[in-house]
## 1
Amino acid sequence: IMMTPKKVDQNGPVLKFVSRVRQESSIQFLDKELFSTPLWLINGKIFSLAGGGGAYTVLGVQKKILKTILSHSVFVRLLWFESYYPDKAFTVNELFLDLENGIWGELKTGKTMNRESRNLQKAYCDRLIALLNLKDLKNPYEKAYLGKANENTDVPSIIKGHIRKLILMIHNAQPKYKNEIIRFHLKDLETRLKQALKNENK
């Protein structure tokens, strides 16, 4: 939501939602520049001259962005947008779909995934699990207020729906891969997500 403070005698809106086109292009930008591993940051020559965390630095930034985008604060704003302008809104479900198309694109084709892609997929799953279980959220405001506000909206259903979709997609993709580490990775994620749904239903 964008705010443009105005005096009483000024015309035009004070509050305005970020357009659907701009929100979609923002996700596309992140997919291209961050979620598709920026390998230039993981460079032995740069490390030899300046040090750095390499893959851990990249993963740290990716996790921070995922935490920002996949948050109850964002979900509340998207639901507001949809409630006021249903034909113009970028929805919570579309946000998940766009992120999945980038982060999990290899699973649809059987394309091999490098270590950094696997790390990002684990971080994505961890974020879904945290959103599903409010007690795992670290931000007190999100946990106590925004998460509770969303309990009786479509948000929990969307999160669970996308977890179930991921479980099926991960399960079906495993036979495509001969690499043992990738198979370990996929089986691990399938187990984590199934356990999260099981724990949530207790």
## 2
Amino acid sequence: SPFKMFVNNIYLWQTMDKLKKELLKYNFTNTYIKQIAGNVGVDIIKLMNTKPTTPEEISKKLDEKITDVRSALNSLHFYGIACYKKERDEKNMYQFLWNIQYKKLVEKLLDHEFTKYKQIENTILEKQNRDYFICPNKCSNMPFEIAAQYNFKCPTCGKPLELEDKKIITNLKKQKKETSKNIKNLETLLKQINDNKKGYICE
């Protein structure tokens, strides 16, 4: 019945809104969206729920230029996070209706965090097994063998290279632990989200 459909839609909206808030509380979520779609992209994700929305409506609600909104939507669409469908309005003109695929966003974030985790792990292994030398001006960071070839002087600015403090490994291990926690949280969220892709162009 129409009433049952209405109740289901309200429930879906409330559930998705809760999951979206959970997802957006993590700094790495906002950082990732900003990298691919700028600040406007972050605002679009925060604004939208399960209801399809036109770029014009988004532009009005965010008080952003329509060109900036379309650009951010296209960037999100490139990654499969924003999807659209064409429908005719009351004037029989085509309009683009957009929605956000939160499951896809979580999948992309998981890929990003997995890559980061592997990079941190590899860096820890490298730095545990070898001495690294750094430039005080932060121009360069290199293992002992390379530093020796440059007579322990920075090839960029000429400053004497310094032995890197092993405390960096402690910091990297902390980052690894945080990234592992992010992955577990995202995996939990992924199981709770179902996207509506029916009729939408996502790729």
## 3
Amino acid sequence: ANDESGNGNDGTVNGATLAADRNGESGKAYSFDGDDYIEVPSSDTLNIKSRTVSGWFKLNEKPTSTLALIAKAHGCGTTELGVNLYLSSNQLKLSAAFEDSYNPGNDDSDISTVNPVSTGEWVHFLHVWNEESFEHKLWINGKMESTKVVSGKNPAWNNSSVLGIGATLGACGINQQFFTGQIDDFRIYNRALSDAEVAALYE
């Protein structure tokens, strides 16, 4: 799985197979069957404060447990960067989160979708965390879903932790929250994109 940003953060594919992407082009996306993942080695370029995380995914049915789309964590579940799918009152929701460096393991900073996320079709998500304004923003399919200000928060980083796509890797010493479905075109920016840039990215 190649990093097209030029930063060299290529991922090692573990079990995931090539699949058709959101445009129907074969071999352009990856399919995960519940025990697959892509592992990206630790890198200073991934230890970022303000950030934008985006990507496309497709679920064929509602999951029965929390699924990780992309995650970077250390220790026993201290999340540095995470985007998950979960059920709330039998509705599928998406959340983006990190844990505060001042109180890691006990002080989450997160944001979740208000409306249910669809299954059976490609969905685009985008999460922005702005370190200067302490603001979370979350978009689904080019539309802003929710915003949240959490003053004084800073992500807890660890230079030795790996990034997982399709799973949370190494948390509490195990791999967990395996995704089932298709994933395409994941991106991480080391800054908060503007609303105009977000709109252009979805288009």
